[in-house]
Specification:
The protein is an alpha/beta fold. It has helices at 9-18, 25-34, 53-62, 75-84, 107-123, 136-145, 155-159, 163-182, 198-205, 214-245; strands at residues 3-7, 39-43, 67-71, 88-91, 127-132, 149-153, 186-190, 209-212. The protein has one domain: TIM Barrel. Helix 2 runs parallel beside helix 3. It binds pyridoxine-5'-phosphate. Pyridoxine-5'-phosphate (PXP) is lined by residues 7, 9, 43, 70, 90, 92, 100-101, 131, 151, 190-193, 211-215.
Length: 247
């Protein structure tokens, strides 16, 4: 069965909106684990907009399933990742101005950088995945660079506005997954997947792992908001009574 990697970056985004201690992505990871997450995914971005070193270090100690670290090829991030040794790293392109990871990694033009880097990670028994668009030349280059996995970018499928476009993107992902396997690569997929669009991806791509963040964390806000308000109301009520009765 396809495994689920839960990306908890968005919990850290909320924390960083106030630069406080809550909500803690480490707690989110424990709860995701209780819910059956097979993998916890985080992206330590160069600008530290959400996940920080502290989160990586604590998750490294507390995730007993599999920790997947999304990362750029920046030296500082590479050294941190090699020191912390998550079970898996996924190389992604990173631009400061983007809201989220936009396109896939251009493995073809970055082969000279990626090849030796992948070797360093694999020597430490860290699984390496490359986040790429489902294009034959990127898949081929990923195999040549020595990656074990590719994570096929499902963003264009998720953003398709017509059924025809969606089917077209699904077919590209399906054939990309097929080619990857023919070349001996293992296949993951992710980005922009939701409760509404995950079905065909599971059925047609047969990925080993799906990495999903925004939609799960968004839903968590709504399935939890009623209880959170009830708890605050209860607390206010309790203290109102205490104020009236003198404690
Ligand atoms: N996979 C990769 C490589 C990503 O960069 C992201 C976004 O951090 C995801 C999966 C998850 O995407 P989403 O938050 O849209 O589910």
């Amino acid at each position: 069965m396809t495994k689920l990697g839960v990306n908890v970056d968005h919990v850290a985004t909320l924390r960083q909106a106030r630069r406080t201690y809550e909500p803690d992505p480490v707690t989110a990871a424990s709860l995701a684990d209780l819910g059956g997450a097979d993998i916890i995914t985080i992206h330590l971005r160069e600008d530290r907009r959400h996940i920080h070193e502290r989160d990586l270090k604590l998750l490294r100690q507390t995730v007993f399933t599999k920790l997947n670290l999304e990362m750029s090829v920046a030296d500082e991030i590479v050294e941190l990742a090699l020191a912390e040794q998550p079970a898996q790293v996924t190389f992604v392109p990173e631009k400061r101005e983007e809201v989220t990871t936009e396109g896939g990694l251009d493995v073809v033009s970055q082969a000279k950088v990626l090849g030796p880097l992948i070797k360093r990670f694999r020597e430490k028994n860290i699984t390496v995945s490359l986040f790429i668009d489902p294009e034959a030349r990127q898949i081929q280059a990923s195999r040549d660079a020595g990656a074990e996995f590719v994570e096929l970018h499902t963003g264009a499928f998720a953003n398709a506005t017509t059924e025809a476009q969606q089917l077209d993107m699904l077919e590209k992902l399906r054939s990309g997954a097929g080619l990857s396997r023919e070349l001996g690569l293992r296949v993951n997929a992710g980005h922009g997947l939701t409760y509404k669009n995950v079905g065909p991806i599971v059925e047609k791509i047969g990925a080993e792992e799906l990495h999903i963040g925004h939609s799960i964390i968004s839903r968590a806000v709504f399935v939890g908001i009623k209880k959170a308000v009830e708890e605050m109301k209860e607390l206010i009520y309790k203290h109102s009574i205490m104020a009236k009765t003198g404690g």
